């Protein structure tokens, strides 16, 4: 599996680029010609690959040491509009889109529901996330993009910077609890062989990128009553010490994973950090703060939030199910608030733009070879596997979110017999993979079994026919009355 480039720090690159305060961050978005065909896309991707090679080329020995010094890295994100036309049909007939973009009716994107539904979606077909210590190289890349007009119709850019002291614009130590290094490959990249079987073959080793442009309001934050009130919003002191662990001198990397019941209600750390049994759902954050001037001559600060994950369910759960749902984490504070930092009614931060992209796996011959390669010629499959995507909805309030982990299933054949080795359950993202091999052409019924993790949910039975090597089922329960994560309604 060739993993996507420009996402995970590798070796010495971590210090010379990703942790270097001289590094600048650039989110460069382009909008492409809507009439672009597959031949034109191939030519453009080949030109862009050449420009990327120039951008990321290491300095020569005379400039950067014997092995050369890394000066830039790029993650290339492709938006749903790269793959799909305005009417939802495939833009390039021979290119199967990533799974999260291919079936938005059954697997809605995270901005389908409030609060992100009201946030403008970036009008970008492609996003280049560039980290670089040489701005001249970035300017050269922009010039190369400009030369690809009229294929490129518009170019936009958001800039960020690497922090010298590790703090965010409110003055708090940031980025303290990311995915552990040894777990990143598992959480960040698509693994078709044993998990993400619904993804197209060319996407193996790729990653989904979520982007939020968050404007922070320091005046409103400073206007809170005192330091204790400000610490309560974050759940930490400014030096990074978690409030409930202040007397124990615990390093952030060694903090317990169980949600702390003694954190202030709605504290940011308690909403998105400690996970306990939900530790299977994590995202790798690689955001960068920004500082810019407005047309009125004032300063604006904020965060170019960026995360990478193997499925968009991972981001959807962290943001919508946890941060913006009052009932998470469950426990004595479960009747509390949504994330105080992101709560739009508090006015401490405003999400200005949102975007979702797919970063393709690396191919030595460039982006065109990675994305537009001819699919392998397979023999017709004799057996198939079933993958389930679970959601629970309140028909009267689409903003409510409910537990997705722990729904159990089994598969029954046409004669009513339970298939051996067919029992499975969903993870925190609501995804479950049936371990049994099913016969292509046969009909089955997916049955929910056991006690569901959400109260007042009726168990479902879903008939289906295996028509190929992969069957995807979206299983949606509606709950007439219930509480998110066992907390406040």
* Percent range for β-strand residues: 15-25%
Nearest-angstrom radius of gyration? 23 Å
CA-to-CA gap between the ends? 44 Å
Structural class assignment:
alpha+beta
Largest sheet: 5 strands, antiparallel
What low-confidence regions span 5 or more consecutive residues with pLDDT below 50? Answer: none
The rough form would be described as globular
Order of helices and strands: HEHHEHHEHEHEHHHEEEHEHEEEEEEEE
Number of helices: 12
Report what the structure shows.
This protein has 12 helices and 17 strands. The chain is an alpha+beta fold and 489 residues long. The protein has 2 domains: 1-377, no CATH class; 383-486, Immunoglobulins (Immunoglobulin-like), CATH 2.60.40. Strands 5, 6, 7, 8 and 9 form a 5-stranded antiparallel sheet that branches. Helix 2 runs antiparallel to helix 6 (135-146).
